[in-house]
Automatic annotation (TrEMBL), chain A:
Alphabetically ordered keywords of this record: Membrane, Transmembrane, Transmembrane helix
Transmembrane annotation, as ranges: 34-56, 62-87, 117-135, 147-165
Region (Disordered): 172-199
Record keyword Cell division present: no
Biased composition regions of type Gly residues, renumbered to the chain: 187-199
Name of the molecule in the record: DUF3180 domain-containing protein
Entry superkingdom: Bacteria
InterPro entries noted in UniProt: MFS_trans_sf
Automatic annotation (TrEMBL), chain B:
GO molecular function: DNA binding
Residues of the HTH cro/C1-type domain: 13-64
Keywords annotated in UniProt: DNA-binding
SMART domains: HTH_XRE
PROSITE patterns (alphabetical): HTH_CROC1 (PS50943)
Organism lineage string: Bacteria, Bacillati, Actinomycetota, Actinomycetes, Streptosporangiales
Protein name as annotated: Transcriptional regulator
InterPro entries in UniProt: Cro/C1-type_HTH, Lambda_DNA-bd_dom_sf
């Protein structure tokens, strides 16, 4: 896809994340953290799917468990990711040109934290594979279907972890201008008669 | 981070000039929440953004930003 074709999508994406969709769900830090935890839980379900496929193998019962987990994961994942993107105002989704210097800095910090977490996760996965290999002997092979689901879980985690981290870290945004204006007007109409600063 | 805190007079200048947070953000090309974080001292701007803020209000930079807290109105010696 060329840059020109992507432009309308980027514009609509930038506009969409500025809309207050269900603001009550991410209004406070506690709720944003709950949202981030929900997103992490949906990722956990993706890892659980890989685990079920690995342990149970190509079994009819396991297939239904995996399909159920996939359905539950999607039902949780899609709204959680959408709301996290709105809560962070697209900090990890938008291109750099749509962000200001504070947002770019926050995104870099979130990406750095997510990178550290992902490294630990991959190290844990490598250790687990090694231990299972040692316990089951050299003949043990990880089935292809397990690898597929593991790849899906790793890719999804790699994709969403920066968003989860930025949603978790985000401080409470400042109150809207309207609230501030009401406060200043009720306090006597501001400093219109005061001597100008620097004048 | 507290030792690197930069104090500013953006809320005062904004109130004095009757400029809303969104208007200032649009003029500076930043998100309106960034102005709020700046005002609350939760974000220290880059030199470029600090210069642009001073330029917008047409005041020297030291009028807007300081490493020490600005004296409260009425607390200055007569």
């Amino acid at each position: 896809m060329t840059d020109g074709r992507k432009a309308p999508w980027r514009i609509s994406q930038a506009e969409a994340v500025q809309m207050d969709i269900l603001p009550g769900w991410y209004a406070t830090r506690g709720r944003r953290r709950l949202l981030a935890a929900t997103g992490a839980f949906s990722l956990g379900l993706a890892w659980a799917m890989a685990g079920v496929v690995w342990v149970a193998g190509p079994d009819e019962g396991a297939r239904w468990i995996v399909l159920t987990l996939l359905a539950v994961m999607l039902v949780i994942y899609l709204p959680a990711v959408t709301l996290m993107n709105v809560a962070t105002r697209g900090m990890t989704a938008l291109t750099e040109r749509n962000l200001d210097e504070r947002q770019v800095g926050e995104r870099l910090r979130a990406t750095a934290v997510a990178h550290r977490l992902m490294t630990r996760l991959l190290a844990a996965l490598a250790c687990l594979t090694l231990v299972v290999g040692l316990l089951r002997g050299r003949e043990h092979m990880v089935p292809g279907s397990t690898l597929l689901y593991l790849s899906l879980a790793v890719a999804l985690t790699h994709f969403v972890l920066p968003l989860i981290v930025s949603c978790w870290r985000m401080p409470d945004p400042p109150p809207d201008d309207e609230d501030e204006d009401e406060r200043s007007s009720s306090a006597g109409g501001g400093a219109a008669g005061a001597p100008g600063i620097g004048a | 981070m507290s030792s690197e805190e930069v104090h500013n007079r953006i809320p005062m200048l904004r109130a004095e000039r009757g400029v809303s947070r969104k208007e200032l953000a649009t003029a500076l090309g930043v998100h309106y929440q960034t102005i709020g974080y700046l005002e609350r001292g939760e974000y220290s701007p880059s030199l470029y953004l600090a210069l642009r803020i001073a330029e917008y209000f047409e005041v020297p930079m030291e009028v807007v930003f300081s490493l020490k807290p600005f004296p409260r109105l009425g607390s200055e010696p007569k």
